[in-house]
Amino acid sequence: MPQHKEVTIYDIASALNISIATVSRALKNDPVVSKQTKKKIFDLAGKMGYRTNHFARNLRNQKTNTIGIIVHELNSNFITSVLAGVEKVTTEAGYDLIIAHSSESFAKEIANAKNLFHKRVDGLIASLSFDTKNLDHFEPFKEKNVPVVFFDRVEQDGKNTVVVIDNDKSGYQATEHLIQQGCRKIVHITSSLKRNVYSKRFKGYKDALFDYGIPYDENLLIVNDLSESAAIESAMQILKMDPLPDGAFITNDFVAAVVMRTLKENNIKIPADIAMVGFNNDAICTLVEPALSTINYPGIDVGEVAARNLINHLKGIGNLQNTNTIIIRSNLIIRKSSLKNDSFEKNIKIKNQKKNLSKIESK
Asked: Which of 40, 54, 252, 296 is the most exposed place for a label (fewest CB within 10 A)?
């Protein structure tokens, strides 16, 4: 693809018929320049696609050897594992990372994207916030031929390269497992259905109910954020249901753990009263009692694949324009929180014993 000419302060000065020194001072927010003139300069700079030249002395080859990454939060085992995967690949390839997080804010995500654009990152990896409305803030990267790879929370419209799991299938597996345990009134606790990860898991949930002849009940859908207070609120909502649900598919392990704790504090037995499946396979799954069944979402693999595809594109040994959707394998991990069926639990134990035996024999 043709390379676009880099916009300079000379271009801005010429277009506004003012001195280069005035443009330079304005872009540095020098108080010597009037607010009115600054506004004209900043407005035109934005329209022309001007990027602040932080590393001018080192940019004769137009590379910074940095990769930007925008995540929606940092307080997450999944995001931490994704970052570990990205860091492993980028370090081996000689790239530095600049990490920004949106704190689930569309406005902050826009600011992060603009900042990384001006930092002249060679490529960008991003996961969208809850309330992201469009991808316009990523257009400057495309205009400058800076590759962007989206992961986890993405827009699956076929226009971008995305790294995801099969959320639809995972939602189906989690719900089907609860149905196979004898559950018929399954509550689904999730987050913003505007985001692909939650809307597709919800679709899998509904599809499983349909295939097993269980009517979908909108009263069993709880949409909230992923905070501890929201999880407690969701648990209290369950306790008000009459009759109580006998199963719960919760699309986040931390939320599931808090819901489980709150239900147990109110004398609800897990899984005897309510069987439960979470999502992500975070460390908390094996720390709660009973251990939490969950969908394994391998964050390290997601990070490695996203980074490797991005860097291969930068090195010219791959082309992201030919790659739309990369699906990472996920699977259901069954633990005690979902096992109502004694025979099912015995079969799991037998399978695990056989696996351990085969490992011993192979050594």
From this structure: 54
